[in-house]
Task: structure prediction
Amino acid sequence: MLDLKIRCAWAGSDPLYIKYHDEEWGKPVYDDKILFEFLILEGAQAGLSWITILRRRENYRKAFADFEVEKVAAFTEKDVERLMNDEGIIRNRLKVNGAITNARLFIEIQKEFGSFSKYMWSFVPEGKPILNPIEKMGDVPPRTELSDRISKNMKKRGFKFFGTTICYAHMQATGMVNDHLLNCCAR
Result:
């Protein structure tokens, strides 16, 4: 059956990308486990296309203890070596070590704010998703003043691979901002 739905152009024709676009991207996430998953995946994506990471998502899930933050925070050098030999993920030592560092810092934020979700959503006016009036894909910004502010705060706390562009992608993925086209079926 032909799918005639209007979608954001980046969703393309790959079924995995379409499913992600329709069911996840831009949908508000308040669950710390999912926020942690996207923190790991967005950090891995730095410098690569999102589809590259999306296709390896299940490999990341296995490699990073089903995204259980406490388990990842407890990873040792032996785990780093295991991950560096895992062909199912991006084998970049800085990214792997960054993911472990970020897990430890994620837990610190949970202790300080009660949850990572409360911390992240505290940056958003009234804690509600920002609905951007996107008419064409060229209207989607790569970063915003808000992503600058969040990224700066997280970098100050020691987070790795979370510059403003990655931060904005994380905000989009977790629905802090909705950048779907105004006429998109997933808006």
Summary: The first strand starts at residue 130 and ends at 131. Residues 47 and 59 are 19 Å apart (CA to CA). The mean pLDDT is 96.
